[in-house]
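Lecture notes, unit on protein representations.

Consider one protein chain, 528 amino acids long.
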Amino acid sequence: MMSRSRMIYVANVSRIAWRIVLLDQRFSSNCASNKSNVRVRFAPSPTGMLHLGGLRTMLYNYLFARQQGGQVILRIEDTDQTRLVPGADKKLEEIIWWSGLHYDEGPSVAGEYGPYYQSQRIPLYQKYANRLIENDYAYPCFCTQRELDLVKMQNIKSGLNPRYNGKCRSISREIASARIQNGESHVIRLKVPDGQTNFYDQVYGEMSIDNKSIEDQVLIKSDGFPTYHMANVVDDHLMDITHVLRGEEWLSSTAKHALIYKGLTWICPQFVHLPLLHNITGGKLSKRHGDVFVESFKTAGYMPEAVVNFVAFLGWSPDPTGRRQLFTIDEMINEFSLENLRRTAAKVDYQKLSWFQRQYHTTRCKNESKLEALVSELKELVIKTTCNGTNSCHSELLNNDYLKRIILSLEDRRPLIPEIATKCYYYWLDPSINANDMKTITSKPHEIINQFIQYFKDTKTEMIDDNQINLCLKELQRDYSINKKSFMTLIRYCLTGEKVGEPVSILFNLLKKEVIQRRLSVASSLAS
């Protein structure tokens, strides 16, 4: 009995079969289609969240296409059914739209080259795999997994490359066809010819690969689905892609792709392989740590402009001097050039991302309408995360003017709104403090706090400024020999529960006088 998932797949294929036929007919008469107009594609796999490298690839494709007056296509490469993550395709699209990189054709934007999910294009790959067999560039392979594992073990034992030995190459087409007709499980492999394969890359130049180093790659798996190598070549040709911009990790596979193009008598697109991304120490950027995923930056409150500007410089720079850093998308489009792409791996320095965020956040704070949007965002987050509903926070503490003052006072120090809502909870809730922590700052916290409380009570103004704090500090230094750093740390701790944070002057500027007095009194009692 056919499984439910297989039934759904067959139904989907039936629904789109007519589109496949039309698409195939359009190109069958002209293998090397007219590619005078630039068309690029971003083709992620929905196996997880979009990472920085993926966003960079999308960005460079976008910049190049827009500069050339071309088109950007989003294609979902979902042929590896075992690794699919439900909903990942929609998340990928959401992040792309959030980034401001709007594509021209794709799953959510209808176009004449669809469908844009590879799983809906299966008949095409099988047809062109058969054509490769006819042209002697592919062959059916009937080796079982046990046989393949045995070959691999023997090769490793002999110190050879653990790859397929080409056993099924010698099977005649007639015999292979009969075995397939009898229902024997098989894959279709690339038949790598003798000699060399040459191709040109816009970044790495002329490449010449000895075909002896190229494995007879599986093109169509036993379940009928294509591998990446087969699907991307067929789709790039049928979708009229002129330039393939992708990560350097695919450079070693490009010779295989060039052979597939040759076997189908198609013209290769222009290849542009982008440098790898490394961490700040020069090591591999690991996806195991959530900080490489664009979604995590969005959740943390980074602006799309900051993330895109940051990613743009990971392998490309419009200004050789490095003096200019801030570029709008339109400015990037004007300046972008394939000639300025670097070969060396780009180091991902998250401090640089923070710098970009501060610059864009400062600009945002100067725009009244954008500032109001930040206030609304902060209020929503404070109610949800810090106050656990409005009942936990006094209504005055959710006042728009108060929230605006907080944002502007912390403009340079905390440019991420979610960080203000969670880490600066003390602007809405009393902190949790204890005597032991105070005594690690100074040996006489009770006496110092009491004297400061008295000084604070005697002031006539609502707020204490730096001058008044310094005058009080002189008295405390005389009486208790406490230095300025320890004194500020103690007062900050009493007011926020944190030993490190904003300057005390900012706290006194934002917190109400009665709140300061209450928290200092609580601290004094605990320290006694």
